[in-house]
Design brief:
The protein is mainly beta. It contains three helices and 18 strands.
Length: about 280
């Protein structure tokens, strides 16, 4: 069945004046306009397309890549606001509509927002919503401590960075665990530091505990090599200096250089660390 809002691999059935008609095993058909057809093709070839509704609300296929697909979140720019709502750039010719009732706060042209794409049951139209909390659920958490996850940063507060975890859950990176410049809209790999008794999820950008020593050690080795074999950082360096230079907490830095020293890969001197050739 051809589904609106998703990528699909369909078969080229025939060529007509409007474009190529594509189909699937359920005998459904959809038009791929000529402007999207490949330069070389044969009837019976398979083609990967995205299906959405055109300006006349008809299902249509495109080879353009949208910035978001059905039931996913993305960071999108508002292109226009009129009496009906806001319209977002999502990579396709027809902009994504966000009704006023689906705006967490009034949208402004030129500003960026976290938006969820869903299919409206009443109209069968693709609609965006910046009221993202209602599409997230921590009732039944599907991640566990130390697990590697994918996050989307929603907004930064004095407490830390609020994130969407694996497109399903709320998460938070506490301000004390942020050692690099992150902003709303950033999509990153991260790790679960803790799942609390109330199902709140603490996230960190580096593997917690001993799991982070090896990647951090390799990172410091790379930085040492790039700097000619010496870095003016050591176990007595100011935490802010370490954070600014390497993006690591002092605790993580000390663990990593301790591991490198134990393996006889570096020397720890009074004025810095030195690579052993």
């Amino acid at each position: 069945m051809i589904q609106i809002g998703k990528h699909q691999t369909l078969t080229i059935l025939r060529e007509t004046d409007p474009g190529l008609y594509l189909g699937d095993d359920s005998e459904s058909e959809i038009l791929l306009p000529h402007k999207y057809k490949p330069d070389h093709f044969e009837i019976g070839d398979e083609i990967h397309v995205f299906v959405y509704l055109d300006n006349e609300e008809r299902p249509i296929a495109t080879t353009l890549e949208p910035y978001v697909t059905l039931n996913e979140f993305a960071y999108l720019q508002c292109c226009d606001v009129n009496k009906y709502g806001a319209f977002m750039d999502w990579g396709l010719e027809k902009q994504l509509f966000v009704p006023f009732k689906e705006q967490a706060r009034p949208m402004k042209e030129g500003s960026w927002y976290i938006v969820y794409l869903y299919l409206d049951d009443k109209t069968n139209r693709l609609v965006g919503s910046s009221k993202t909390n209602r599409f997230l659920d921590n009732t039944s958490v599907t991640v566990e401590k130390f697990e590697k996850v994918f996050i989307l940063v929603t907004h930064i507060t004095d407490k830390g960075a609020n994130v969407i975890v694996n497109g399903k859950h709320h998460g938070l990176i506490y301000i004390d665990d942020i050692f690099e410049d992150i902003r709303s809209g950033d999509q990153l790999d991260a790790y679960v530091k803790k799942v609390r008794h109330d199902n709140k999820i603490d996230i960190v950008l580096q593997a917690p505990g001993y799991r982070s020593i090896e990647p951090n050690a390799n990172y410091i080795l790379d930085e040492l090599k790039a700097a000619g074999g010496f870095l003016p950082l050591h176990d007595k360096s100011d935490p802010e200096t370490i954070k600014n230079e390497l993006g690591l907490s002092k605790k993580s830095f000390k663990k990593a250089i301790g591991s490198l020293y134990k393996d006889k890969q570096i020397l720890i001197k009074s004025d810095g660390i030195e690579l052993i050739e």
